[in-house]
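Page 47, continued from p. 46.
Same chain as before, 97 aa.
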Amino acid sequence: MAVHRIRFANSGMAFDAPPGQPLLLSAVAAGIALPSSCRNGTCRSCIQQLQSGSVSYRIDWPGLLAEEKEDGWILPCVAYPESDLVLAGDERDRSGG
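Result:
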């Protein structure tokens, strides 16, 4: 299975994400802590802005307004990568690096 490279524009930190796993879980597996709470798309604590690439959702309507989706906002807890991605948001490296 192909993996996609996910990179944070602010820090350059990156991780690999398989297409069949939400971005949040892939980040956690790579030792990168993203803000999160509900992990089902309703609380919006994980919201990130997508600078490039594309994601898909397996739920009908994640907790985003149509305007937010048009502006590139995503919810990593329920977003699945369909390509390499660049995210504008902040992250924390839990691996000590």
